[in-house]
């Protein structure tokens, strides 16, 4: 089994052509939040990942194996709840989409739920109780299969939100 003990966030500093050519490891959020796991790469090799405790592996990160080969991490599509603002005004409830999503993120954050934040939607892992709460707040909740990249959180170890991840989507203020 090939061993990995080094992670390069988003492959920064590596030649882009080498990163593009690298075999991939497609992993869901449940696996990527562990610092030790086994997986199989796209070229069929068994890989044992041993990273410092608390390390979170993000889609786009590059793992370096003991033999020096690169493995590009892909966030696997998984079942998540996609939360969007309600656009139906027929029930007499006035909507401010940004505020409704901000309020939902606040309530989910109070429950320490991992959340992926986007300008027009939120994503969380499936939870029927939370789905009902969000629908009661006049939000639209749909089950989808998409990659899940929740926020690192203010006190997270390993990757820290705000250190490079926002730039991969062309961040602008």
Identify the overall geometry. elongated
Helix content, binned percent: 10-25%
Please count the beta strands (DSSP E, at least 2 residues each).
Answer: 10
Average pLDDT level: 87
Measured by DSSP, the beta-strand proportion falls in 25-35%
Unreliable stretches: 157-173
Which class of secondary structure composition applies to the elements? alpha+beta
Q: How many helices does DSSP assign? A: 4
Rg from C-alpha positions? 18 Å
The largest sheet, given as strand count, sense and whether it forms a barrel, is: 6 strands, mixed
Tell me the series of helices and strands, N- to C-terminal: EHEHEEEEEHEEHE
Distance between the termini: 45 Å
Query: Taking strands numbered 1, 2, ... along the chain, how are they ordered across the largest sheet?
Result: 2-6-5-1-4-3
Structure overview:
By secondary structure, the chain is of the alpha+beta class. Helices cover 19% and strands 31% of the residues. It has helices at 16-21, 29-32, 97-110, 128-136, and strands at residues 2-8, 23-27, 36-40, 46-50, 62-65, 70-75, 78-85, 116-117, 122-124, 139-146. Strands 2-6-5-1-4-3 form a six-stranded mixed sheet. Strand 8 and strand 9 form a beta hairpin. The termini are far apart. The model is unreliable at 157-173 (pLDDT under 50).
Q: Which tags fit this structure?
A:
173 residues, alpha+beta, four-stranded antiparallel β-sheet, disordered C terminus
Topology at a glance:
Elements: E1 2-8, H1 16-21, E2 23-27, H2 29-32, E3 36-40, E4 46-50, E5 62-65, E6 70-75, E7 78-85, H3 97-110, E8 116-117, E9 122-124, H4 128-136, E10 139-146
């Amino acid at each position: 089994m090939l061993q990995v003990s080094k992670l390069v966030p988003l492959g920064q500093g590596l030649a882009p052509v080498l990163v593009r050519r690298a075999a991939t490891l497609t992993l869901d959020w449940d696996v990527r939040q562990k610092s030790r796991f086994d997986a199989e790469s796209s070229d069929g090799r068994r890989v044992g990942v041993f990273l410092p405790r608390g390390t979170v592996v993000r889609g786009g990160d590059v793992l370096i194996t003991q033999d020096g080969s690169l493995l590009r991490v892909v966030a696997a599509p998984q079942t998540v709840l996609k939360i969007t603002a309600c656009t139906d005004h027929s029930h007499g409830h006035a909507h401010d989409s940004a505020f409704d999503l901000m309020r939902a993120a606040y309530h989910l954050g109070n429950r320490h739920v991992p959340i992926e934040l986007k300008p027009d939607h939120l994503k969380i892992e499936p939870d029927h109780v939370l789905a009902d709460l969000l629908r009661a707040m006049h939000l639209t909740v749909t089950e989808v299969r998409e990659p899940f990249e929740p926020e690192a959180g203010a006190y997270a170890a390993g990757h820290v939100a705000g250190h490079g991840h926002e730039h991969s989507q062309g961040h602008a203020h």
